[in-house]
Design brief:
- Helices cover about 40% and strands about 20% of the residues.
- The protein is built from 4 helices and 6 strands, in the order H-E-H-H-E-E-E-H-E-E.
- The chain has helices at about 5-25, 45-65, 75-95, 135-150, and strands at about 30, 105-110, 120, 130-135, 155-160, 170-180.
- The two termini are about 25 Å apart.
């Protein structure tokens, strides 16, 4: 087989692979979770999730806003100043420990009375408060057939969306990725 034939086969295989991908779900994709306000533990579950993800950074920002903690005693003041210096350094450099993305579990719910393609979003790190909502209806309509046919998808939290003026209405975005061994070929 000539080099031209090999290149032609590779090109044809890539064109076929791309045409198949256009009919299925792209991977990865990011989506807002819907129906969060209808879950039993809303908004506490999303505030707890935000604390898991952003707690240290928020505490440092609050310390900058209110100044170093005031403590009695020479040793206590030494520790307070050390915390202040450390918080200043972390905020200046953005040097926070890297955290693993929080895993999300996508659960098909064909018995959902409102949408036969429903896909629930669960976050195991939240325990009993882990059910946080659903994928949007258009995304679920495209993703459900893939899940039903056995394609595995992984997901992770991208961000918890909290508006300081509306702390009672947080939201969440996740990223979904087709399992690498199941990429369409």
């Amino acid at each position: 087989m000539s080099m031209e034939d090999v290149m032609r086969e590779r090109r044809d295989a890539e064109i076929e692979r791309q045409s198949k991908r256009k009919t299925g779900m792209p991977s990865p994709f990011e989506v807002k979770v819907v129906g969060v306000s209808f879950t039993p533990h809303y908004p506490d579950n999303l505030h707890q999730l935000d604390e898991i993800i952003n707690g240290a950074r928020r505490r440092d920002r609050e310390m900058m806003e209110f100044g170093p903690p005031m403590m009695n005693g020479e040793m206590a003041q030494y520790h307070a100043e050390g915390e202040w210096d450390a918080a200043c350094q972390r905020l200046a450099t953005g040097d926070y420990p890297a955290t693993e993305p929080l895993a999300v579990v996508l659960v098909r719910n064909p018995d959902n009375e409102y949408d036969a393609n429903a896909i629930e979003v669960h976050i195991p790190a939240l325990g009993e408060m882990g059910f946080i909502g659903h994928l949007t209806r258009p995304i679920a309509a495209r993703l459900a057939p893939e899940i039903d046919s056995g394609t595995q998808w992984a997901a992770a939290v991208v961000s918890v969306l909290i508006d300081p003026d509306h702390m009672d209405r947080p939201g969440i975005s996740i990223e979904c990725v087709r399992a690498p061994e199941q990429e369409q070929e």
